[in-house]
Amino acid sequence: MSNGSRITPSVMPSHTARDKRDRNESPADSLVPGPNKVVEPVQMTGSQAIVRALEELGVTDVFGLPGGAILPTYDPLMDSTTIRHILVRHEQGAGHAAQGYYLASGRPGVAIATSGPGATNLVTAIADAHMDSQACVFITGQVASTAIGSDAFQEADIVGITMPITKHSRLITKAADIPQAMAEAFHIATTGRPGPVLVDVAKDAQQAMMEFSWPPKIDLPGYRPVVRGHSKQVREAARLIQRAERPVLYVGGGVSRGHASVELAELAELTGAPVVTTLTARGVFPDSHEQHLGMPGMHGSVAAVSALQMSDLLITLGARFDDRVTGQLDSFAPKAKVIHADIDPAEISKNRTADVPIVGSVKEIIPELADAVRDTHAEAGKPDLAEWWTVLNRLRETYPMGYTPTEDGLMSPQKVIERLSEHSGSEAVYVAGVGQHQMWASQFVKYERPHQWLNSAGLGTMGFAVPAAMGAQVGNPDRVVWAIDGDGCFQMTNQELATCLINKIPIKVAIINNSSLGMVRQWQTLFYESRYSNTDLNTGHDTIRVPDFVKLAEAYGCAGLRCESEEDLDATIEQALAINDRPVVVDFVVSRDSMVWPMVPAGVGNSEIQVAKDMTPDWDEED
Fold first, then answer.
1. Where in this protein does the record put region Disordered (predicted)?
2. pLDDT tens figures, 120-157
3. What is the pLDDT of residues 296-351, one digit of tens each?
4. Which of 9, 197, 274, 564 sits between 20 and 30 A of 164, alpha carbons compared?
């Protein structure tokens, strides 16, 4: 995945900039995020400097849970008039909330925890943010610097633990280093390919006195993300597009992170090529657009998967050729040349060799590519893709996204999500956990805008939905936010309903309750002779209902609803949408036998996609 940098790297402040600072004006070329208001030197503690730095960086919302090693910082945090701290019930919830906040608002998410288990409870969220390229800053307390390495109470080397799963991590043992460390953390997290940054601050550094001034100097000599694409490579890409007979725009989450949906639409309409959007890119190109074929990959649409397989050119924008899209890599898009644009040079040719690599921000590259394509059109005319679209339209018509009625009389989960989308619309935000409900939500909600769909894609974290929805609601208080969750995922982080109620965060939770670990059960059905080892959860129809989700919701002070029949489906959704003074939990009791189709079984090529069990499209007919 990639993104476009929102802060263009530049040189450090010049004499002119320093002169402006003397006049109490912001240096125009500062790399420090935020308004860059000048603060003259003032004495304060390191903990006060952490809070003041957050304020100067423009942070308005943080999620956290205090403990001994971070306690010095929680004291001045109480006095802040611009930062809202939301007390979570588990540090993992703080981390996922920070992710949801970033994904829905585009502003960096912030989570705070104490040392030891407080910090290690953040690890799953940090790894998740790293896999999905999310700009989050995690601030942890650490034992006093004199005790580091002594196995002190609640000591854990969180910098060492998270080094492989952060974009940058740093231990602070001197109070004087705090302003620079905080500014650099936000700069690194939000520029280039976004990612999580950890700042671990020793307790004595928080307590010591220091001289605070703002903005600090950022000193990152080895960090200069490339933003502009190489013009020669862009022109070569345009020439490949001009010659292609079966091009496909393969669009990844980097286009969402790079805020380049408008630019993408321009390029797509200019080329006339089909567009496929990966799981993290859903919404960056409208589902309703006639050129959109849907999502590629293991549970993608037949049209999207087959378009990639039959393509002669992949115009790859902010995508990383991950295994869930490619299937068996050596048989993926076997006849296609590859244009690969990404801000992270490490992604280019990592999995699939690029014929034309372009390093840079998709926000910059896509308009440059569009201009180059216009030039080739002016020279040689616009290519005729009518024959290609005849093949693709036949595939769309023959294998539309759909589902079969259930045989046990219970609701179809796909129907529930379809109606949820119809009633809530494209202005709502949809957040999913991981599993069958995640795939159905990616397939049956109509996505028309970026930042409408949030999920844990790369890491696949069960328990993501509720706290991420909480963060999304804080970042977008005027939108309806649905957490579409499974009965298994929901039980991992549902304690954050207490956080939502007390902080007046009115998320809505749709539990797609099939009384099982649904995706695991699907694989057991298909590949393990229906031997259902440890997948029954006893939460749904004709079970002991442990827990009873309605009663659980009510115990947390939320509205609890249950829907067990299609006749009540629309009315239940409307009832949930009408409640806005507290969180709502709806227990949608669905069939446990419903499966996610289409499906590319693991370990095989995408040409083996099945539209139902043992049913593969007739490729000879389509070719």
1. 1-39
2. 999 999 999 999 999 999 999 999 999 999 999 999 99
3. 999 999 999 999 999 999 999 999 999 999 999 999 999 999 999 999 999 999 99
4. 9
Closest CA to 535 of 543, 527, 524: 524
| pLDDT tens digits for range 152-178 | 999 999 999 999 999 999 999 999 999
Task: Measure the CA–CA gap between 591 and 19, rounded to whole angstroms.
Answer: 69
**Identity (one letter) of the amino acid at 369?**
L
Token pair belonging to 508: 């809505």
Q: What is the 3-state secondary structure (H, E, C) of 552-609?
A: HHHHCCCEEEEECCHHHHHHHHHHHHHCCCCCEEEEEEECCCCCCCCECCCCCEHHHC
pLDDT of residue 613: 83
Dist CA 438 CA 64 (whole Å): 27
**What is the pTM for the complete model shown?**
0.94
Residues annotated as catalytic are 91, 153-154, 203, 519
pLDDT tens, position by position, 435-461: 999 999 999 999 999 999 999 999 999
Q: How far apart are CA 227 and CA 225, in angstroms?
A: 6
Backbone angles phi, psi at 102, to 5 degrees: -65, -45
State which H helix or E strand residue 39 sits in.
strand 39-45
The stretch 229-247 carries a mean pLDDT of: 98
Spell out the SS3 assignment of 169-186: EEEECCHHHHHHHHHHHH
Rounded CA-CA distance 513/540 in Å is 6
Other CB atoms within 10 Å distance of the CB of residue 476:
18
What is d(CA 553, CA 546) in angstroms, rounded to the nearest whole number?
13
Residues ≥6 apart with Cβ < 8 Å to 414? 403, 440, 443, 444, 594
Cα gap 206→255, rounded to integer Å: 39
